Amino acid sequence: MANGVGIYAISVDSVFSHQAFAKELGGLPFDLIGDFERKMVTDYGVRRDDVAGYSGMARRTIFIIDRERMIRWTWVASREQPQPDYDAVVEEAKRIASGG
């Protein structure tokens, strides 16, 4: 990670599940952080408790956080947009990384 910039994924699944997931995909180009206790999904306000049998799962969300650790941009999944516009995410990340 140059200049303290990095990409991280957070999942409430176990570390063993993360390892299997990464292996299945042939490796991941980012770190996958385990939030098995659901502290981060709760603190970031993306915890879901509305799905029977899956209490504490995370709502699919993207945060872009600047070097000062401030959230500068957020995308949250919805029925209308279940997947983000990945090109827009990359462009926004570049803009924020360049000080924009």
Description:
- The protein has helices spanning 15-24, 39-43, 86-97, and strands at residues 8-11, 31-34, 47-48, 57-58, 61-65, 71-76.
- The protein is α+β, with helices and mostly antiparallel strands.
- The strands form three sheets. Strands 1-2 form a two-stranded parallel ribbon. It has a two-stranded antiparallel sheet with strand order 3-4.
- The longest helix is centred in the last third of the chain and has 12 residues, at 86-97.
- It is globular.
- The two termini are 20 Å apart.
Number of strand segments: 6
Give the number of helices: 3
Low-confidence stretches: none
- Name of the CATH class: Alpha Beta
Termini separation comes to: 20 Å
What CATH architecture label applies? Answer: 3-Layer(aba) Sandwich
The percentage of residues in β strands lies in 15-25%
Instruction: Predict the CATH topology.
Output: Glutaredoxin
Using brief descriptors, characterize the structure shown.
single chain; 100 residues; alpha+beta; two-stranded antiparallel sheet; 3 helices
List the helices and strands and how they pair.
Layout: E1 8-11, H1 15-24, E2 31-34, H2 39-43, E3 47-48, E4 57-58, E5 61-65, E6 71-76, H3 86-97
Parallel strand pairs: 1-2
Antiparallel strand pairs: 3-4, 5-6
Summarize the structure.
The protein contains three helices and six strands; from the N terminus they run βαβαββββα. With 100 residues, it is an alpha+beta fold. A two-stranded parallel sheet has the order 1-2. A two-stranded antiparallel sheet has the order 3-4. The chain has a two-stranded antiparallel sheet with strand order 5-6.
